[in-house]
Amino acid sequence: MEVEVKLRIPDSETYKTLISLLSPFHIRTHNQHNNFFDGVAGQLSSQRAVLRIRFYNDQPTTKCIICLKAKAVLVNGVSRVEEDEEELDPTIGQECLTDPNRLGSLVESSRIMKRVKDEFFGEINDVEGLGFVCLGGFKNLRNVYEWKGLMIEVDETSFDFGTLRFKICHFSIWEIAIVLSEVACCLNYIGDLSNSRNGCKLMHLALQRSWDFARIEL
């Protein structure tokens, strides 16, 4: 069981400072393009699920991953969601982006799409009856770091309405309380460097969340 903690970075200056501080621990950079899909009648979203096709436009190769995010539950500010992923031919991924109904033809060749059909279109036996719609998407620049044995991702996400930035940390459940406190202190330090009180606010929020996570039983 992996736990992902996502903290929003308040502004571009804090983002630049964080990138600079983490630069000695940089592993790789991903240029991602995320696209989300649902059934034409909302078959997935009505059951708190969504289908995502993610392109990794990392030259010289392009990678494509199809992912089913399902069984989402939000309790006390903590989101739990099941993610099932499978690699997809990038050419087929582009075809699905152009014509979402192309997804239906993948039922026989894709484990993810077979699961989508069985779990969300159970009463439809004809593949031609599987209708999909693209919900939109966004581009994401993800820098990946390894710090103190942790995998840290810093995202700069571009939407039509603007840009958001996040710091994402991956933990095993028993590491959360201790490590999140360290991350919070780091963010507080960054906030001081940026002459921003938001760093302090983030620290208190993260410390509070660390205790909440520590009590979760999965």
UniProtKB/TrEMBL annotation:
TM region positions: none
Recorded superkingdom: Eukaryota
InterPro entries xrefs: CYTH-like_dom_sf, CYTH_domain
Pfam family, one: CYTH
Residues covered by the CYTH domain: 2-162
Signal sequence residues: none
Gene3D superfamilies: Hypothetical Protein Pfu-838710-001
GO MF annotation: an example: pyrophosphatase activity
Record protein name field: CYTH domain-containing protein
Lineage: Eukaryota, Viridiplantae, Streptophyta, Embryophyta, Tracheophyta
